[in-house]
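Subject line: Sequence and fold of a protein, written as structure tokens
Enclosed: The protein record, placed directly beneath this head.
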Amino acid sequence: MTDAELEALVNLIGRARHIVLGTAADPASRADGERIAAAWGGLVLATVTWPETAASWLRPARRFAAPDPDVWVVAATSAGWAGMTRRLRMSTPWRPHRTVVTAALADFRLPGVRGARADGTTWED
């Protein structure tokens, strides 16, 4: 994650009171999640990590959605996030319009989700 991307993500989180942070299990995604939490500096209600492949993703999806934060923040890979979003939409009250994602997910388009690119520009579907 670039410094410009990190700054853009923190700006997208804005004045949220609290967030839930979701990451893939790979070291890069977990490190990005830690950087985001440290740079934002606010209350992280939960940090949820999920695998690239899973039988259902139900358990991490419930843990990710349950705290009902102001913003869900995701640092993950497309493969794991695809599985998580399917399960989140089917089994939880999660809403894409309250979700911010890293540049690694810029090509994974989902209506309502916002994100930051490596150059610090942002996008919204």
User: Anything to note?
Assistant: Residues 78 and 105 are 6 Å apart (CA to CA). The two ends are 21 Å apart (CA to CA). The chain is about 40% helix and 25% strand. The longest strand covers residues 43-50.
